[in-house]
Design brief:
Number of domains of chain B: 2
Largest sheet of chain A: 8 strands, mixed
Structural class of chain A: alpha/beta
CATH architecture of chain A: 3-Layer(aba) Sandwich
Largest interface: A-B, 46 and 49 residues
Largest sheet of chain B: 6 strands, mixed
CATH topology of the largest domain in chain B: Rossmann fold
CATH superfamily of the largest domain in chain B: P-loop containing nucleotide triphosphate hydrolases
Low-confidence stretches of chain B: none
Number of helices of chain B: 11
CATH class of chain A: Alpha Beta
Order of helices and strands of chain A: EEEHEEHEHHHHHEHEHEEHHHEEH
Number of strands of chain A: 12
Number of strands of chain B: 10
Shape of chain A: globular
Distance between the termini of chain B: 35 Å
CATH topology of chain A: Rossmann fold
Number of helices of chain A: 13
CATH class of the largest domain in chain B: Alpha Beta
CATH architecture of the largest domain in chain B: 3-Layer(aba) Sandwich
Number of domains of chain A: 1
Low-confidence stretches of chain A: none
Distance between the termini of chain A: 34 Å
CATH superfamily of chain A: P-loop containing nucleotide triphosphate hydrolases
Oligomer: heterodimer
Strand order of the largest sheet of chain A: 6-7-8-3-9-10-12-11
Helix content of chain A: 25-40%
Structural class of chain B: alpha/beta
Strand content of chain B: 15-25%
Shape of chain B: globular
Order of helices and strands of chain B: EEEHEEHEHHHEHEHEEHHHH
Chain lengths: 327, 345
Amino acid sequence: MLLEVRDLHVEFKTRDGVAKAVNGVNYSVDAGQTLAVLGESGSGKSVTAQAVMGILDMPPGRIAGGEILFKGADLLKMKEEERRKIRGADMAMIFQDALSSLNPVLSVGAQLGEMFEVHRGMSRKDARGKAVELMDRVKIPAAKERVGDYPHQFSGGMRQRIMIAMALALEPSLIIADEPTTALDVTVQAQVMDLLAELQRELNMGLILITHDLGVVADVADKIAVMYAGRIVEAAPVHDIYRSPAHPYTRGLLDSIPRLDQKGQELYAIKGLPPNLLAIPSGCAFNPRCPMARAVCRTDVPPLYEVTESPAPRTSACHFWKECLHA
Amino acid sequence: MPEAILEVRDLVKHFPLTQGILFKKQIGAVKAVDGVSFDLKAGETLGIVGESGCGKSTVAKMLVNLERPTSGAISYKGEDLTRLSGRALKAVRRNIQMVFQDPYTSLNPRMTVGDIIGEPYEIHPEVAPKGDRRRKVQDLLDVVGLNPEYVNRYPHQFSGGQRQRIGIARGLALRPEIIVADEPVSALDVSVQAQVVNLLERLQDEFSLSYVFIAHDLSIVRHISDRVAVMYLGRIAETGTDTQIYDHPTHPYTQALLSAVPVPDPGARERRERIILTGDVPSPANPPSGCTFRTRCWKAQQHCTDEVPLLAVPEAFRGQTGPAAHPSACHFAAERQVVPPAEES
């Protein structure tokens, strides 16, 4: 297994108390595989990724427990120096907003080349040559002429390509993409997702795709982990989860999106609001919004049940997963 | 057929590009909207879709008179509001209200919810006499599904979805006939989006509103709209009913746009035909001659460079009654199904 996150807990100290952003997350991704982490804002999907990358702001953040195994070694036990060698070189991240993630006063060539200067000890001139190669690789037209341009001179889609190029620079074995296409228009989104999938295949990388878009997930993911209030509530191969969700939250999400291919009736709406992380409801965190909630849901935190009726391994954190599966 | 309550004809908005500080001279113009015409009928929802920079938000602003058009006409029940001013304009504006995209920046953080929703009454006092306003505001909160006791709270005490409800309540305060909603749900989480979309639909029935619904999310637009207009670089590329546009698109841009939308069904991966456009949208300051889409179009020929295609039922479909016979601004319009039909479940 390339990456395995085990029982990860992350907390943030705030003025109003401790916000439990991640409460025991487990997931894993293999080389060449795409894991989609699906969740709404505040579900802990980005915080988990930041903990994996080691770019969490600490303080106020604190990793309160768990293990992050990357190629068998626990990242949380490593010294910062060792982690720096891995970060960027063997695991890399693509952020949502390319304009604010790139340095506005450095040319893109300098920013791409920096990877090679820092990690590979190349000279500035060689690094620049590598930068042009990378820009070619992510299909930026006229790479040679544009290598000295600044981020603001590129369009949104082109900037996101530069982010991808930067992440791929040292051919990492794991890429974490945090909402990589959310800021892009749909025709450009399609181009960027295609490019990412193509490069992933070529380099046999593991990809963790963090998103809230159920459409993008259906297009590219192999397996899905659905997060709610800092926990994984359901994990399954992509086809199973869309065909028959085993958690009422997943079911609610799927029912609440309008479809392009049909004009539906009134949309199903999950009632209420996502929980406040300072005061997560007792028992199952989803119980106040759940149409199936019973007394036990308010008192007992559901463990991750094995969904035994499925041939592929899948899990659901719902006491009544069986009922949900057949609903 | 119900009468059109809003008629938009050849609407144009050019933003001047100037050079120099003391002696400003115009060196060009950003052609944000470049000849847009449509009708809005009473009680219907017109969806306007397009990518960023296509001019859809500028159209919205002109409809509510936040932006004055460079040329063209916007007639509300026969009255051209681009020519009105003073008291007559104020009277018309009461009937056309707007809901904004970002519920975080469109509400004044220093005003209470009651003051925000009640502010339209300050400008149009004839709608609600002073003593009656608080009750009216509380009624509005109730209508949009918020607790009427929240009148004295401030925007930061609400979540994004609740703030959007406040924005909608403010839009409803003057009992308008038309609501222009510019990306009203795109800043919201998926599970909250559905709540707000359902609310908008319920309010439409309850108050017999007409909506101009602007969004980049094609699925939501299909869900809520009776008719759809697809915009590209300041012009309407194609317009028709939701079935005509989604199931029988004839303009290549519409086809590419629809085929690029991810469908939440992993089984559709194989059944779908994807059209991946190359390149980016050209700058509206310097749009291509002829058909503005030709730089990214796989059908483009010399004719497309020379002549601007007009928005009309294409010749190939003229006289037909099928769903493909709807206005499409393409010289080579042809039907092509790009959204795979949903599987029967």
